[in-house]
Amino acid sequence: MPIHHQQLANLFRARSICRDFTRRYDRLLRPLKLRTNQVEILDLLARRCALTQGEVAAAVGLEITTLSRTLKPLIKLGLIGESQGSDRRHKILAISPTGLGVLEEVQRVLAGATELTPFPLFR
User: Fold this and answer.
1) Residue 39 to residue 36: CA distance in whole angstroms
2) What does the alpha-carbon distance between residue 20 and residue 95 come to, in Å, rounded to a whole number?
3) Residue 60 lies in a domain
4) pLDDT tens digits, residue range 82-100?
5) Partners of 51 in the β-ladder
6) Which domain holds residue 60?
7) Tell me, what DSSP letter sits at residue 114?
8) How many structural domains is the chain composed of?
9) pLDDT in tens, 13-29
10) Within 13 Å of residue 61, how many CA atoms lie on the same side as its CB?
């Protein structure tokens, strides 16, 4: 089934809107030294406790190598803890108490911003 020109235009417009929202949230998160995708990972770990890197990657839709680069600052800042899984290939990730505190701060920072969007970032 061929994609019509209008459908393609709508697809590109939707992608543009998503990138715009990401830029806006990244700007708001800059004082916390976080990006939107990092907050998504913190929120996931806060809700699901401990997960392997593979489980986190699948849940947020990132390749493992991209996830590794995204995690490095979170681990360095002590927001996420990393432990050995059942074998050397599996690392278990969990949000730290510091990470939970930062996530609460993120929620406060973004509380006003969600009024600008048709959907809340946090439910």
Assistant:
1) 5
2) 28
3) yes
4) 988 777 778 899 999 999 9
5) 93
6) 5-115
7) G
8) 1
9) 888 888 888 888 888 89
10) 2
